[in-house]
Amino acid sequence: MEYAGSYRLEACLGSGGMGVVHLARSASGLRLAVKVVHQQYAADPEFRARFRQEVAAARRVSGAFTAPVVDADPDADRPWMATSYIPGPTLAEQVKNNGPMAPAELRRLTAGLAEALRDIHRAGVVHRDLKPGNVLLTDNGPKVIDFGISRPVDSDLRTETGKLIGSPPYMAPEQFQRPREVGPAADVFALGSLLVHAATGRGPFDSDSPYIVAYQVVHDEADLVGLPADLVPLVGRCLAKDPEKRPTPDEIMSELRPPSYEADAFIPAQRRSLERPLITPAGEQHTHVGANSPSGSRHATNPAAVPEAVPAGAPGPASKRDPAERKATAGHRQRAKWPALAVGVVVLVYGGLWAAQGFGDTRTSTADPVGSGAGEAAGAAFEPWRAPSIGDAAEPGVAPACSYAPSLSGVSATLVCSTRGVAAARLDPADGRVIWSRGAAVDGTRVPVVSGGLVHAVLTTAKGARLRAYDKDDGAEVWSKDLAGYRGGVRHADDTVLLVNDDGRVEALNSATGRTRWERRLPGHTDPVFSLHSPATGHSYAAEQSGDGRTTLVSAVEPKTGEVAWQHRLDGYLTPVATERGVLFLSSLDQDSMTDAVVRYDTASGDVRRVPLPYDMPQAQVAVRDGTAYLLARGGTLLALDTTRPGGNAEPRWELETDVARSSPPVVTAGDRLYFSAADGQLITVDTADGTLIGRTAPRLLSGKLAYMASLPAPAVAPGRVYAGAPDGSVFGVDSEDPGTW
Fold first, then answer.
1. Cα–Cα distance for residue pair 383/732, rounded to 1 Å
2. How far apart are CA 660 and CA 181, in angstroms?
């Protein structure tokens, strides 16, 4: 390719696993460094979304100590990002060509990089790959580069899918052991390793094998021989195994005050460092999963025992930080979501990357998640149980996805699950006994549902997808439907299945028979997406955003007849997430795919109220109850937002920093309970009255492996109990009345 946007590519500056960096020129002759994503990643919608968010994060970082972003196009055929071209050797080239740095040079480098990290962290960004090759030496001091795209360059160490983040000699112990707990302190550890390299030409942990380096980083003491004596204590603290014992960039600069280095006018301002959240490797109804388009503490927190200031490393109550700081922290967690490096011999071994996308019906919405079975067995004694597998064909290492249907009209309650290798299985909700299981060559996990008296499951393979309907009693297949030629997923609406053809026509099937009920185009729509069905209103909601993302056409459709009850064009890039008492709730995304508001649309009066969030949240998943929107962001921030206040402004009822980097959608129920699952199999519950973490189960991994999934199945809630799947392939049920005993 000769151009990226309007910039002519003149020469290749470097290449990595994720993209190529070119020297380019603008129309005025300005020299730029343009990163262009490889074609195979350009075809991945999830990668595009991640790249878009990375561009947004890079824009927030000042250009004083980095290469500022000039332009970018994450939506191009080959996504690209242009930054200012900064002439000068990398630190790696300087040491290789000229040998170790003199003590005075080393102190200036230390101060310059500490100042750069302070600037980066203040913007809410964690670099996660600070190393000699990513530091440019210029007349104005060091510049930190290459935190826009994660790419494998300095190591052959890879996960099963070839994904890599970081370079082992410059990675912190938590990046190997708990990659989703990575915060600003990991960059400080990398700074310590980088300084040893600059002073000696080698690293503090040295071996030809990246696996041995990983072991040394986690278990061995750093080799600081060759460092100037007055820098040994400081660098030693930077290389502490415990992130909490490492200095902040401000503290580093304080120890390097004049006359330690030649910057007599510089006196660093002290500030509190960014808090480092605990991060676990990471149905409702009322749930929206992110934008359109992975072991923490095992014990429950006693609310009375939690002090107002909770030390890092312990789950705690709502965050008391101001919105500006919260926004910065949310940004750095957003950056921390790239695929992580796995080191199998010495630390936890993580499973491969696989997508749970496409035709799964994971966002069905009802007015009450517990459903009409509120009286069913709610007062009966319930013994927690665990089913090790949902079928002989099940492949462990993936969390099964389950849904619960309450008893209706004499029909018993039903718990149905699916996983890789099992299309559908019915379990006894009382004890987890597998009643029947139907194996199939299923690549991904979709949530099976009961619709039209049958169990519906979507089978996805390399050859395509198919919807199958099974008899609820014996698991016999009743009918099936090839999903080739459809897009946007399968939406179940009571006893109707809604599909959207490739040409934009909507087709409705009878759930019991599979026969077509109606087929037509929705007025005003060319590519509608059904993101929500509400039994309370009887409507399914289709949304379609305008090409420029400024408005969204929303239609309420009667699923049995196809009649459009109403249509309204709303401002913003919106997705319906819930209905309650005649109000449709929608989540709003900004141009950087960050959730920035919740919109209330009163369908009776036509009143529209936009409730902005106190800070943008990355990939927030939303649940609504009693006018309060509960937003669970990627990175673990949980926010309760009262949307009923007049004037469109709302203060958070509470905020909670959970220790979960990747979570399922939240499920909110009566009785002040909110549930969600973590990628390691933990089931977590929060008291919605005050945002207190009140229960969590133990992680359930398979031999330490954590399979990274594009989306995590939400727990299934029933009266008095909660069901969830775990990566060890099990399904378990717990008593929801006393989560402190989980």
1. 11
2. 9
Residue 591 zone, left/alpha/beta (φ > 0; ψ -120 to 50; rest): alpha
Q: Is residue 40 part of a domain?
A: yes
Examine the domain organization and report whether 532 and 389 are in the same domain: yes
Classified as helix, coil or strand, 150 is: coil
> How many C-beta atoms surround the C-beta of residue 650 within 10 A?
23
Q: What are 208's two structure tokens?
A: 């030809």
- Total domains in the chain come to 3
- Positive or negative, the CA dihedral 249, 254, 258, 261 is negative
- Cα dihedral across residues 115, 119, 120, 122: positive or negative: positive
CATH number at residue 647: 2.130.10.10
**618, 57 Cβ separation under 8 angstroms:** no
- Is beta strand 422-427 parallel, antiparallel or unpaired with respect to 464-471? unpaired
Q: Which amino acid type is present at position 305?
A: A
Domain of residue 56 covers 3-84
CB 438 within 8 A of CB 422: yes
Alpha-carbon gap, residue 575 to 554, rounded angstroms = 9
Residues 159 and 14 in one domain: no
* Residues 480 and 440 placed together within one structural domain of the fold: yes
- State the Cα angle at 36 between 34 and 38, rounded to 5°: 160
Residue 263 CB coordination number (10 Å): 18
Residues annotated in the binding site for ATP, as ranges? 35
- Position 29, amino acid: G
Tokens 């002290």 correspond to: 270
- 476 and 396, same domain (yes or no): yes
pLDDT in tens, 676-700: 999 889 999 999 999 999 999 998 8
Q: Are 469 and 480 in contact (CB under 8 A)?
A: yes
pLDDT, tens digit, for every residue of 280-317?
222 333 333 333 332 333 233 333 322 222 223 333 33
Nearest to 646 by CA among 609, 603, 612: 609
Helix (H, G, I), strand (E, B) or coil at 459: strand
For the ranges 362-376, 588-602, 604-618, the lowest mean pLDDT is seen at 362-376
What's the pLDDT band for 96 if we cut at 50, 70, 90? confident
Closest residue by Cα to residue 667 from 282, 360, 364 = 364
In total, the chain counts a number of residues equal to 742
Which residues make up each annotated binding site? 35
Domain boundary among 84, 102, 118: 84
For residue range 510-553, what is the model confidence (pLDDT) as tens digits? 999 999 999 999 999 998 999 999 999 999 999 999 888 899 99
Structural domain includes residue 195: yes
Contacts of residue 412, Cβ cutoff 8 Å, sequence gap at least 6:
none
Closest CA to 423 of 405, 401, 452, 404: 401
Within this chain, do residues 78 and 119 fall inside the same structural domain, yes or no? no
Domain shared by 509 and 564, yes or no: yes
Q: Of 84, 103, 134, which residue is a domain's last?
A: 84
**367 and 405 inside one domain:** yes
CB 452 within 8 A of CB 493: no
Band (742; pLDDT cuts 50, 70, 90): confident
Q: How far is CA 171 from CA 127, 245, 327, 422, in A?
A: 11, 16, 26, 38
Neighbours of 104 (CB within 10 A): 12
Rounded CA-CA distance 250/274 in Å is 11
Residue 338 lies in a domain: no
Does residue 230 fall inside a structural domain?
yes
Please name the helix (run of DSSP H) or strand (run of DSSP E) that holds residue 471, with its range, or none. strand 464-471
45 shares its domain with 143: no
What are the residues whose beta carbons fall under 8 Å from the beta carbon of 739, sequence distance 6 or more?
300, 685, 694, 695, 696
